[in-house]
Design goal:
Blueprint lengths: L2 H28 L4 H9 L1 H9 L1
Helix pairs in contact: 1-2
């Protein structure tokens, strides 16, 4: 495996995680009164997939 391939994969993963984290935080701010419910909603698979597409 070339080093560039590894770097590209990590770069993609980092960008993916950043996007997901931003999405989760947006969900939490949106419904700050329901913080725990917000976490569970964000962890729901269909919710996460929809979020990552946006």
């Amino acid at each position: 495996m070339k080093l560039e391939t590894i770097n590209t994969r990590w770069g993609r993963l980092a960008a993916h995680m950043q996007g997901w984290a931003r999405c989760v935080m947006h969900g939490h701010i949106e419904r700050s009164g329901f913080f725990v419910a917000g976490i569970f909603r964000q962890l729901a698979p269909q919710r996460t997939k929809k979020c990552l597409r946006d």
